[in-house]
Amino acid sequence: MRVLACYSSRSQLATRGNTLSRETIIAEIQQDIARMQKVIELLGGAKTVSIDTVVGKANKKARRKMSAAGRKRIAAAQKARWAKIRAAKK
């Protein structure tokens, strides 16, 4: 079995056949977190980045804006459609 470099060979998670307790798993994860925090510190700290930068929201096109007159025309047309449907039911 190949063990990754970031895990020690005596790692509880790397052994097979043993039943792991919840406390053992949590302790192993906490050790991993501490190890990763040291790596971040060695790399010069974490740079905070907004989620919009990661997702790429800045590259989206601007939404088209509809004029008030356009919205009124659409609303009037929809009301006319519903009136026609109601008249047909009678």
Q: What is the terminal separation in angstroms? A: 77 Å
Beta fraction: under 5%
What's the shape?
elongated
Total of helices: 3
Helix share, percent: 40-55%
Instruction: Report the mean per-residue pLDDT as an integer.
Output: 77
* Unreliable sequence segments: none
Major beta-sheet overview: none
How many strands? Answer: 0
Structural category is: mainly alpha
Give Rg in angstroms: 30 Å
Order of helices and strands: HHH
How is this structure best summarized?
The chain has 90 residues and is an all-alpha fold.
Explain this structure:
- The protein has a domain of 47 residues.
- The protein is mostly helical and 90 residues long.
- The protein contains three helices and no strands.
- The protein is elongated.
Please supply descriptive tags for the structure shown above:
90 residues; elongated; mainly alpha
Q: Which helices and strands occur, and which strands form pairs?
A:
Layout: H1 22-42, H2 51-55, H3 68-89
